[in-house]
Amino acid sequence: MPILDDRNFEFFSHSPDQTRRLGIHLGGYLRPGDVIALEGNLGSGKTTLVQGIAQGWGVLDPVSSPTYVIVNEYRRADAQRLFHIDAYRLEGTFDAEILDFDRMLAQGPVVIEWAERIREVLPGELLRIRLDYTGIGHRAMMLNPEGKHFVALVENLRRKLYGDF
Ligand SMILES: Nc1ncnc2c1ncn2[C@@H]1O[C@H](COP(=O)(O)OP(=O)(O)OP(=O)(O)O)[C@@H](O)[C@H]1O
Ligand SMILES: [Mg+2]
After folding, report:
1. What angle do CA 72, 74, 78 make, to 5 degrees?
2. Domain containing 152 — which CATH number?
3. 47 lines ligand 1 (CB under 6 A)
């Protein structure tokens, strides 16, 4: 196996709850400026994962799909915010530029569904998560970190879930 693949982490989920639990662990690591780019088809589990991420991050608000608003902004007890973007209806760079990423990144982590649609405007360093349907109740998630910070984050997550092996 090429050494570069070691930074990737594949997780096989057997239920929506298990997907949420992965999200809860991940959410606990997130800091302002962190970008989580979710890619995967309709129903692959992106919003389910975000529900867990938000819970682990410490959200006070209920989490739903930002279907009509493009961006949902969630609160926590401190001043931090969690931004949840659904890029499904965005058309490339033009639409994405109005999002004002810099303002969001200064205030909290940003999680994006359908991130592949606005790839051009995303920062070079991020955590990409590709979700795939693998059967009824089953989903495969490939975590692909870009940049040292996210490589370390995935390594910590892997250790937390499976220990040092
Ligand atoms: N292991 C699993 N992980 C996540 N969701 C699962 C799993 N097994 C079944 N599901 C079901 O699949 C659906 C996933 O829906 P969800 O809204 O999370 O997908 P999505 O990727 O956000 O879709 P969309 O592209 O429409 O936003 C839910 O109904 C969920 O209960
Ligand atoms: Mg969704």
Report:
1. 155
2. 3.40.50.300
3. yes
